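Predict the structure of Phosphodiesterase.
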Amino acid sequence: MTSIKQILCGTAVASLVAGTGAAIGAPIGYVGPSALDWLLTAEHVLLIGTDGTNLDKILQYAYGDDSGFKVAMDQGITGAASEVNHTTISGPSWSTILTGVWDTKHGVINNLFTPTPYNAWPTVFNLLEAHDPNINTTVVADWDYINGIGAAGAHPADNNFLIPFQDDWATTDAQVTAQTIAQILATADSPNISNFLFSYQVQVDEAGHGFGGGSPEYAQAVMNVGANIKEILAAVAQVKAATGDDWSVIITTDHGHQQSLGFGHGFQSPNETSQFVIFDQAGDHTTDGGQNLNFSIADITPTILALFGAPMRSDFDGVSMTDPSILNSFVQPDDLKQALLAAISMFGYPNIGNDITLAIRTLFTSVPYFLDKFINDISNYLQPIVDQDIFLISGLAEFAQQAIKFTGGLAVGATEALAQAVAHMTGVGTIAPTDPPLSAEFSDVWGLLGGDHGLAAPDLALPDFDVA
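Done. Here is the predicted structure for Phosphodiesterase.
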């Protein structure tokens, strides 16, 4: 069992702020202008994930000086990407981002979390910790699925912060931002410890599901996340000024959103398959404001490993973005915004056969997830009645709650088994790993003794809970 710290990062925390896929080993050849500096300092990599965020909405609503999206684009390379021919569901897509392989390999089909896939297909946290247990790895998220990924595998993340829902998703994302900033600023006290930090925000996707991707609420959520990212990047600049250590920054999303209110995503319209990757490599300013149309979310884990000099798996689907020539599509446009909009306009649907196949898969794999959500909603609705200890009424409510959980669990299990079969028949999880699974034999001794690797920002701790 891996303990995940559930925290509330509000004013108290804020106040604390006063390589190619087939290659083995570190990438050879292009090393970037800062390579000699990196030999003398710790490596720091920040991955920011914003769920369900369309790049064209970023360009429309959050491409100004008040947005961290614009700051990151000006300082790095932006790729207008697409996951056409892959499912546009969050669980599979974030699994690709954090493992470097598509669902044909990792086998994740929906948003019902299980740690099993990450034993065969280790996460970036597993791979970094296995390479060097002294790298401090951290997850800050407000969706427990992401925290589950961080806790899975033989070498889980050192620090795993689940931010509980508070008032609304914009407020909750602000707490994610506060904890992320606290984690970044904490590195100033330990400048010789390398760090990988994954910060995840969910409000854009929630606005899309609640109001549609073309709504004012969705636009506002995009602007909110842009403002949050600007605060995070300001913290990175503050630490850099204090320590001299630079940070590599990657920003991405898992999928886009339908424009009208409805299913949201899961199918193959260009709005749903829309993705982006922004990559700012520490010390490399020669590519600032550039564009690369060959970036993919599968490239993110290989890139992070390359930045830390960690070995690559031989069976990655992605490649490292540390050398723009590897992907052979780097350009320096006169107008980055217009170049990205032109790239987005070229995205289309898959062939009709793939479109139908993926639609069938989405329908089958969504049933157990929504059924599970419905059962949990009913159980949560009954819980206050159970807690009031009303004579007879509370007992009946508890009996109904248990009966619903039992029968509902059977239904979820049956529909999940059917969904797994349909997904497998349509190509999910059909490719086995060629690299052996990571062994836990050499797990971090300090971690086994109950410590971490030295970098956890102060927080307001709520009771811990366990993820199996």
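Residues 352-387 form the longest helix (36 residues).
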